[in-house]
Fold:
Amino acid sequence: MKSSVVIVGGGLAGLTAARHFHQAGIDFQLLEALDRLGGRILSVDASGEMSDDGFDLGPSWFWPGMHSAMSYLVDDLGLPFFAQHSEGDRVFQRLHDEAPRRFPGIRQEPESMRLIGGVGRIISALASELPETRIQLGTRVTNVTLDGPAVEAGFVDAQGTARGLKAAHVLFALPPRVLEASVVFTPALDTATARSWRDMPTWMAPHAKFFALYERAFWRDAGLSGMAQSLVGPLVEIHDATTATGKAALFGFVGVPARQRASAGQDAIIKASISQLACLFGPQANSPSATLYKDWATDPLTATDEDIRAGGHPFSDGLAPVPGEWQNRILLAGSEAGRREPGYLSGAVEAAEYAVLEVLKLLEHTN
Structure:
């Protein structure tokens, strides 16, 4: 098989790139290892199933005034959004044997925005513009090889069959650490490039998120915003996660390191998180209608051992240039490759659009 461009990864970056190639009339194939699109974007209902009116187990927010690439894409797709709820007092928890304290809320500047229906709406909107024949799910790329004027991407398809796909260019829309750890390059990457990819932290990889769903947002009745910070844990930062349609929820980032989370077990963390919410917001929080938990450190397509050992936020200009023999043949386009906003939704859009422009220039030059 042959295509002009192979896109590896069907998250926000990969789908943004695919949309631009499709609009430009460029032949492409998108290969996604998961059986769903979205990557680190995952919006689900109370049962954990993907939903266009869901709770965001991955990223939740974007900031239009700061993140222009994401803002332009949201506007272009016609997706409505709303401000993160922040009205009311916030709660701070300092010590186990000290009662939580209540403080006046602080207006966020700039305001955090959420897509109506969840961030997954942008994934379904992008996918709806693409031909289904150009997308292959359950397809794990294992190797890439330079073959004269082409690059051959070797992969295992959804049926477990090893196959290959040749293209003029391969665009990798996935974390550099995952790429370096899971794909074999022939010729091999030089040591400096491989180290650069391993050293780049992966957005979301160290984190776990917990959601408690309720029949109504009772904390608002008490004049609370749903925002809390804690030095006790297990949740260190908590927010109101109520949807635009009124499905009430609180969510928190789990502050327990990944290895300790694995040792403690999911059930223990969920139980401790519910108990903590009751301590912060009152006894009504002790009886959620459902809970959701996502530990991104256990996702092999998001996190590697490097992410467990060394987390952190991706940083601009942290990636070495693609080495000579691979230059202009492969391009990095995940959020971590963003030049201005790496590690954010906008970084994924920005990196994808930059890579697409580079490919279009190269294709124009060769035609």
Summary: The chain has a mean pLDDT of 94.
